[in-house]
Write a structure and sequence with these properties.
The structure is a single chain. With about 150 residues, this protein is α+β, with helices and mostly antiparallel strands. The chain has one domain: Gcn5-related N-acetyltransferase (GNAT) (Aminopeptidase), CATH 3.40.630. It has a six-stranded mixed beta sheet, sandwiched between helices. The radius of gyration is 15 Å and the shape is globular. The model has no long low-confidence stretch (mean pLDDT about 95).
Length: about 150
Amino acid sequence: MNHDIKNYLDVAKNTETFMESELDVLKEVLEDFQHNKKTSYHLIEEEVNGDLAGFILFGRTPLTEFTWDIYWVVVNKSLHGKGIGKSLLVRTEEFIRQKMPRAAIKIETSTRKRYSAARGLYKRVDFQEVGKLPNFYAQDDDLIIFYKEVSSA
């Protein structure tokens, strides 16, 4: 963690994507990552000219043999479309490949319009949409599950 929690939260707020309740959860996750030596979270970040441009938070999925969850992919709004989200996802896959020869990566997200760019990014880096739970987050706000298997072979 090269920046303080406020920097990460400022980048997340700047996206204008996340609701206040989501930002509260992000703050809790960042605090756990920063203070809990036994946390299962991992963080990778990208900088542009020394400033935090984006970050990704992910970790092992409990009770699974080789599955990982990506919890947060956040890119400064002014840098959308510059390849930072893709770079973060590629670097995460590389990190996971170094940890184990075979792995699966899962991302859960919302069908809200504000998440359409993220859903497009996941598809561009070969995640497959494998499931949908209707009205999961709220009425007419479904949960979409993206999935990708990776191996070091």
